Known about the structure:
By secondary structure, the protein is of the alpha/beta class.
Amino acid sequence: MAPFVFGTTASPAYEAIEILEKEGIELDTMRIRAFPFNADVEQFLREHDRIFVIEQNRDGQMRRLLLNETSVPANEKLIPILEYDGLPVTARKIAGMIRNYITHGNVTPLVRRAPKEEATA
């Protein structure tokens, strides 16, 4: 597994990778610096089974660009790590989302809610 990092997500992503490495989770990393993508991006896609695309964008624009602009069929490979609540993404949030995917197979944590009590008359 490996993350793509770019733009303002790069610094917290690198910090998150360090956090995960201390927990024994090793990740290969590639920083995307330009568009259109070069051959290195396609090679990275071919060499990894799962790639986390860390974005601060609700629509996942970078993931969409990777799907549309590369020749590698990567729809299932590209796992969105999205943070778009208006605040800067933190290393702790990124590490938590990646950890959750690795341990539970999903990115969005499930929140259990207590069942509603039925009203008695």
